[in-house]
Amino acid sequence: MSELQEYIVLNGDKETLETSLDPLILSKNLVTLVLKLKGENFIDEKLIDYKNLIQNDLYKNDLNNLASMLNGVNLDYLVDNAHDEARVDTNLLVFFINIYNSLTIHSICYLHEKNLVSNSSMLGLLEGKFWSKMAYQIGSYVFSLDDIEHGILRCNRIHPSKKTTCFTQNDPRIKYCVRKFDPRIHFALNCGAKGCPPIAFFTVENLDRGLKLACEAFCTNETQINLSEKKIVVSRLFLWYGSDFADGTDEGLIDYVSSNFIPNDEISQQFNQLKSASAKIKVQFSDYNWEINQKI
User: Fold this and answer.
1) pTM of the model as a whole
2) Is 241 strand, coil or helix?
3) Which DSSP category does 149 fall into?
4) Which of 23, 44, 111, 147 is the Cys-Cys partner for 151 at CB 3.0 to 4.6 Å?
5) Please, which pLDDT band fits residue 274 given cuts at 50, 70 and 90?
6) Confidence at 278, pLDDT banded by 50, 70, 90
C-alpha cells in the first residue's frame, strides 16, 4: 500500500510483475478471483466473512499478485487496438467495471487487515472518503473508485455530491473515459453495501447482455408498486443520478424504470395495472441500505 495525493494505493508498494497479458483478461481474472473468494466466505449466501477471507492464501497471495500485475498494464491497448469507437467503449467498460468491483472488495479486505472497519456503514469508512481514497495503480496512472466510476465510466460527468468532475481537461487519464455514456453501468458496480447490485464478471462478448440483465434485475427487484396510493417506489440511486437515466421529469424516470422490468414479471404486471388505473403516478425513492455486506 502507498499513498499518493490522498490515495491509498493497494498495489503501489508491490514489486511490479511484468505482464504481456491482455488487460481485459487480467481484469476478468481479478474479478473471477474476487467472486471465488466471496463464494468461499459467504454466510447464509448473503454476508461475507471478511475476517476469515483475509486469512485465505487466495487473498494474501493470488489477489495481491494479480493486483500487482496492473502496474504493468498498458492502458493504450484498450484504445489503440480497437477498430472503432464502439469497440473502444466496450474495451473500457469491460476493463474498468471488472477493476472497480475487484478494487471494492480488495479495499474492504485491506481495511479489515488494518482494523479500520469500526463502522457497519460504508459511509463511515475512512470518514466517508472510501471511494475517493481507495485506489489501484494501473500502468502509469492511479485510479480511485471515484475516478473509475465518475471519471471513466460516467464520461467525466459531475460527481453528484462533490459537484465537480474527477478529471480536468489536461488530466492524461481523460483519454480513457468512455466515449458514449451507458447508464446501465450503475447496475454493474458494487460499492460494498447491502443495497448495491451484485458482482458479475464482464467480457467483450457478454457486455451488452450482462448490462441488460443487470439493469432488468435491479429495476425489477428494487421497485415497489402501491396501487392504492397510485405510487411507484424506486431505488434512491435514481434520485442521485436522475439525469443519467432520464430528462429530469417523473414521467421520464418512470418510463426508464418500467421499460427495464423483467418481461412478464409480477412487478411489470402490477405496473401495467397502475398505469391503466391512474393518469398521474407519484414517484417515491426508497432508503438505500449502506450497511457493509459483512458478517458482524
Assistant:
1) 0.94
2) coil
3) I
4) 147
5) very high
6) confident
